Amino acid sequence: MSTFASAPTESRLMPLLNSATLPILMLIGSNMFMTTAWYGHLKFPAAPLWIAVMGSWGLALFEYWLAVPANRIGYGTYTGAELKAIQEVVSITIFVIFSVLVLGEKLTLNTAVGFGLIGVGAFFIFNGPFK
């Protein structure tokens, strides 16, 4: 019998630490940073542009530290096109949440349909009838 109390926790985490799920988790994290970098400054319109750019650039550094390894880890399990489709769906999902919760914008039908079409595109990349 093992004396390590953390063994059950480690075994539950193992499915998350593989080349199929880890890139997705990392892309979620990277897109949280990138969405904040690209759009977070809109909450501060009085801030000088150079501060918005430098702050965004600083956040983007963390995005790259997650996105580049995510793509390296995932490539082989996923094709480049599949990785890009995952990134786009994650990006749109995070952006919708950000725009509603942080920017206070309403999700319109046109926006939902447009984002839905991006999801349909991702579906075709993974499961389309033309493979």
Q: Topology of this structure?
A:
Blueprint: H1 7-13, H2 22-39, H3 49-74, H4 80-101, H5 109-127
Helix pairs in contact: 2-3, 2-4, 4-5
Name the descriptors.
mainly alpha; single chain; 131 residues; 5 helices
Please explain how this structure is put together:
Helix 2 (22-39) packs across helix 4 (80-101) and helix 4 (80-101) packs antiparallel against helix 5 (109-127). The relative contact order is 0.12. Among the domains are: 45-74; 79-131. The protein has 131 residues and is an all-alpha fold. The chain has five helices and no strands.
Q: Tell the overall outline.
A: globular
Number of helices: 5
Quaternary structure classification: single chain
Strand segment count: 0
The stretches of 5 or more residues where confidence is low (pLDDT under 50) are none
Structural Rg: 18 Å
Report how far apart the termini are: 49 Å
Biggest beta sheet attributes: none
Q: Report the mean per-residue pLDDT as an integer.
A: 88
Query: Structural class, from helix and strand content?
Result: mainly alpha
Amount of beta strand: under 5%
**Helix and strand pattern:** HHHHH
Helix share of residues? Answer: over 70%
